[in-house]
What we know:
Chain A is built from 14 helices and 2 strands; from the N terminus they run αββααααααααααααα. Chain A has helices at 5-29, 47-52, 55-89, 94-102, 109-120, 125-132, 146-170, 174-182, 187-198, 200-215, 219-225, 232-243, 246-271, 273-277; strands spanning 33-34, 40-41. Chain A starts with a helix and ends with a helix. Classes of the chains: A mainly alpha, B mainly alpha.
Amino acid sequence: MQAYLPYVGLTSVWIVLFVIAPLGFVFYFSFLTVGPSGQIIHTFTLSNYLALFTGRYAIILLRSLLFAFITNMICLLIGYPLAYLIVEQGGKRKILLLFLVIMPSWTLYLIRLYALKTLAGSTGLINGVLLNLGLISSPLEILYTPHAVVVGLIYTWLPFMVLPIYAALDGLNPSLLEAAEDLGATPFRRFFTVTLPLTKGGIFAGTILTFIPALGDWLSPLLLGGAKVMMAGSLVEHYFIKVGNIPVGSSMASALTAVVLLIIYLSMKLGGDEALERIV
Amino acid sequence: MKSWNITSKLVRILSSLVYIFLWAPVILLIVFSFSSNKFGMKWEGFTLKWYSELFANVAVGNALRMSLTVASITIVMATLAGTSVAYGLYKYKFRGKKALRMTILLPFVMPYVVIGGAFLVFFTRAIHIPLGYPSIIIAHITFSTPLAVFVMLGRMQRIDWTLEEASADLGANVPTTWRKVTLPLLVPGIIACIALIFPWSFDDFIITYFVAGPGSTTLPLYVFSQLRYGASPVINTIGTIFVALPLIGILLTNFFQKKEVT
Lengths: 280, 262
């Protein structure tokens, strides 16, 4: 017997049984349809995918991709400077400052989104303050707009961008930075030619950890977008749970899976194996 | 140099705004959990009555018990699996090693709705696992194990493995070496696993929502069922407790660390 088997064998079987097989089943079901009384008809069809790539569903799928991309970009633009500041100037408080970014994500994300929702609602604090200051005459419609959903996505997933970038910046060899400085590089040049390239693993890990969950998010569109701004996750939930049409739900889940695998592939291609290693 | 200074000032301002953005909703939640207004989003004087209502609430108690049970079993199983897989990955070279590393990550990086939907289809249509404790626990172990694997791999890279060899040279057999040398070296990693997996499992809403079936309610599922009725002070109190406990822990650790330094 191979020496490594006792260590990895059981978990490998578990992964095949509870990760690969369920995803395989979803893929299989995505080619089936349901009959009039809700039973699953086991004949091969592409109709679910045709429906998915035309009309209303296609718009929702494209919207999810767009929202996930915007979320990812804004998280990067906010998260990188924040992580940089914590590492550079945090000193002894580095860990505390990092914790203050991550900690909100330990508290039921459901409750945090709901708090955000009440804050932005028509009778919420933001509108209250603006009304009292006389800046607006009637409450702003913040909720149930695409903006609200994207803000919710950023709010939820930003910590997962900061964390791997922080780890990459913190692990940077300081003598490289000193060398750049000694050789006369300006701070900007040092940042763009040394720091940034050396932390790209963290950037791509952060991309995996924000783009993918944002793409499949269901709670942010549910609580902040309502029925007006649905995303792919809303459709998956709708067909699996509310309607019970497993083939249609499966085709959406499979499409999401395909996009996710593509993103992981691209991130690893561009960010190297480090993108994978920096994830946790 | 000057433009760099301006940039760093901008970064400072931006970062403060990010902290405000992240914390403002949470702080409001805490404040309103002490407000006597019964719709939970207006200040009408200080009260603790929502907390006493929370602790008297049977449904909350049951949901909490279920969440704690699931999280405890998940921590034990995922840490065991994660430690053993990480050891195998760290110590041995074998075919399919890279593939194993990638597939272990899958439940961690897949969108929650996909994992949840896949579990639901598989449990109800393929292997007929009853929805409730069994399905929830299997799901939680599956999505928590990747965390444990990577935490333990990180720990193993920092260990002095010659100690293990020394133990073998001195005549200890494999189980004794594990018990007396390897395991004690891994303890910090195991503690990190517990600290990470507990909130990971305890907070999970989406996957649990898919596989819970009727009649099983974890704490996040309970909160979700209550959100339908709009803002409520009881939800504010639950949120406050979730923020307060880890925050107190961190502040205390930080405080004592500072004392040690001075």
